[in-house]
């Protein structure tokens, strides 16, 4: 979403077999599409009311000789009336997480815990507390251990050191991007959900699928025929089948388009349990998480800044300057004077280039004026014919 806002100048939108061009970035497109949907809905409501009035008149007056012609005229109007179709609801935008029963806080506490693989710790000195209403985004560069921490919280890894206390009744739903790729191609959503919910009635199984847009024939489609976004929704439906108290999402948007991501954001905000989110989608993090945890330097700690501060941290922008009292002038990097001289030389070169461009633009304007015959041409252009001036 942020990429589209910063890069594109128009959006070409395909829906129901039709292409529509919207000028501007993604936010402008979303606003214009919402306005268009509202206009279509209003126009359809008005047409439906008009159609009902005409049908009522025809039904009441067709049999009477005095009004038969008027009724026939209105019947022709009805036949020629082109129905206005409102924007169809997209079933691929359906996300509805079942809400869990209430639990007393905390769900999980880590006290100087360590976790890793093959007796080699990846993260150490972990001190975290997760409550039922937490919305936490795990930040950190790839390879720093975000997924390792997620697996610890999901119970897939045991702590190698320290303590980890987990509420005994807590249910966890853990979604990974690999689950989407590992869905059996020769099964249907209905078959997969039936196996995942043993003992549940067919109605309960279909209700869970319906929460994620798999209703009617869609529930009986072969998984191999589903799009990437549909498979992601099916994986989410499977991991939330027992209404987990904590939902851990590791890159949930990789297979989702922008509209589906927005629907997922809304569903997460409506969800009553705790959320642990790993995502490169800044828009999702900003709208979903109210707590940031930075996984860096072999540990994980609450990050006090905003997502904008974190981006500056990653890019090395706007960082606090070193204390001048710690070393004073000796602490300055070598070559500082040389760098200043190089900067002056660059600034001089830029000024000279800008002056050259201004001179060239003035010359071009004079030539254009001479070609157009407007005003008195410059002395060196006055004797030129129109062909020569071109």
Describe the structure.
This protein has helices at residues 2-7, 26-61, 68-80, 146-153, 177-181, 189-196, 202-210, 228-239, 258-270, 282-288, 307-315, 336-372, 379-382, 386-389; strands at 10-15, 18-23, 108-117, 120-130, 135-139, 161-166, 172-176, 246-250, 274-278, 291-296, 299-302. 44% of the residues lie in helices and 18% in strands. Residues 323-340 and 385-390 have low confidence and may be disordered.
Which residue ranges are poorly predicted, with pLDDT under 50 across at least 5 consecutive positions? 323-340, 385-390
Number of helices: 14
Mean pLDDT, to the nearest integer, reads 83
How many β-strand runs?
A: 11
What's this model, at a glance?
This protein has 390 residues and is of the alpha/beta class.
Which features characterize this protein?
alpha/beta, 390 residues, six-stranded mixed β-sheet, 14 helices, single chain
